[in-house]
Amino acid sequence: MTAKQDVRAGVIGLGMIGGGVAVSLARRGRVPAVYDIRPDAADELAGVPAPLASPAEVARASDVVLVAVVDADQARTVLSGPEGVLAGAHPGLVVVLLCTVAVPVVHELAELCAEHDVALLDCGVTPGDKAAQNGLVAILGGDESAVEKARPVLVDFSKEIVHCGLLGAGMATKIARNVITYGTWRAVHEAAALAASAGVDPANLINVVEAADPEGSTLFTWQRMRHAADPGIRAGVPQVRQLLDKDLAAAQELAAHQSVPVPLVDVTRAHGAETIEIPERGDV
After folding, report:
1. CATH number of the domain residue 232 falls in
2. Is residue 242 classed as helix, strand or coil in its secondary structure?
3. Band of the pLDDT at 3, cuts 50, 70, 90?
């Protein structure tokens, strides 16, 4: 059996994430074979060798290939092009898809890989700016045996590995995480606009929120309660629902008075009952 340190790694795409991953791997002593369309892409990446001539060459030199391109079209080309990964693949190769794509694309690419006896794992990663500091969370979907085969490489660039389930589960989790990120940005945008309309410096809003909840723990408070489905929590639902409705009505009143559009506030109030509902156990 191959020793963990003998598992060969390859990285395709040396942008912020792929380049950072390659640096993290090299720092741990697992110097990867790499490819990028830019011949000089590795010049400023500590410990990372010059790119090989094609993704196929990376596949031939690797047991686990990490694909860190931008989108689905690039992933298709890198995998199935004339000099793509699958052209140089050997049986047992594991491809780890690091770019965020739609879940149906994950299954499409996995079928292509399976035709060459190659396993594909979907692996959303976050936060991208920590890739070069072994600071990524690897969010995986796929077969357990493929995860274990790739794990020595994953450990060398990640601070945490979360195997979320079958193929597509990692990507779905990353997509959901992105919804929280962008949805929160929109919520902050509307809140700051409301505060500013009343003459409040948005910096004061930031100070208030950070002082009241420095770890941001309230973000998941109600979801944790819903997941626990504690019967005792259910008794408090009517009161929380009343508070939600009252507070968002006040936000809508201020918004209307100041002519500030707050579509997220409107949707949140309209779906307040659905948001607050505590499902029966097994329904989550």
Report:
1. 1.10.1040.10
2. helix
3. low
